[in-house]
Amino acid sequence: MFTRTIMALAASVVLGGAAWAEDYGTASAPELSAAAIAAVEAEDADELLAVMQEMQSRSMYFFEGDEALCRREPPKVGLLAKPGFNFGTARTAYQTFNKAQRLEEQTCTCPQAARSFEEFSVEFLGVMPEDISETEMAKLREYNIANKNSVYAEYRDFRNESCRDAP
After folding, report:
1. Distance between CA 53 and CA 158 in Å, rounded?
2. Where are the domains of the chain?
3. CA distance readout (Å), 66 to 16, 24, 62, 147, 158
4. Tens of pLDDT along 124-155?
5. Residue 58 and residue 89: Cα distance in Å, rounded?
6. In 3D, which of 58, 161, 36 has the Cα closest to residue 105?
7. How far is CA 21 from CA 58, 151, 153, 158, in A?
8. Could you tell me if residue 55 is left (phi over 0), alpha (psi between -120 and 50 degrees) or otherwise beta?
9. Taking Cα atoms as reference points, which of 64, 61, 26, 54 lies closest to residue 165?
10. Which ranges in the chain belong to alpha helices (H)?
11. 61: Cβ–Cβ under 8 A, 6 or more apart, which residues?
12. Residues 65, 110: contact at Cβ < 8 Å?
């Protein structure tokens, strides 16, 4: 019964507007979870709907979004298809760039949903993936060295604080 109620409310969140979402806009992920539990225990469907709408806007829990977008990777074309580290270098730069954007936006949506690799390649390098040369690879390597560790650490902390339940 509980699962059916949650699924029915989830469907109404997807189909409904964000009438109550602003009430929970500043709540942390653990606060939203606690509010959802309290609303279920109180059998307050309107309150649960408001909490779930906020969860949806943050892409939390079962509102994770389009999984295909979240698994996007660089295409294996040109230099990226050759043996060596070029594909991994490009993938790391792509993920780092997208995570940095998510940090700037303060959104929990998966990083790769921000843009395709092709869009990243044109925006960041000025060329399509199949046209990436050693010059662009050097730019990607430099970007990774300068940004990867700090962005990954900051993004991990952001996700743990804002997008997940507290341990």
Report:
1. 20
2. 2-57, 67-163
3. 19, 24, 11, 27, 21
4. 999 999 999 999 999 999 999 999 999 999 99
5. 29
6. 58
7. 11, 29, 29, 21
8. alpha
9. 61
10. 2-15, 29-41, 45-57, 67-70, 86-105, 117-120, 134-158
11. 55
12. yes
- pTM for the model stands at 0.61
DSSP 8-state code for residue 162 = I
Structure tokens at 3: 């699962």
Q: Per-residue pLDDT tens for 39-89?
A: 888 988 888 888 878 877 766 655 555 566 788 899 999 999 998 899 999
Q: How many CB atoms lie within 10 A of CB 36?
A: 21
Which helix (H) or strand (E) segment holds residue 142: the answer is: helix 134-158
Distance CA 38, CA 24 (A): 14
Rounded alpha-carbon distances, angstroms, from residue 83 to 77, 79, 86, 88, 121: 11, 9, 8, 10, 20
Q: Which two tokens stand for residue 151?
A: 């962005």
What the block records as the tokens of 95 is: 């993920």
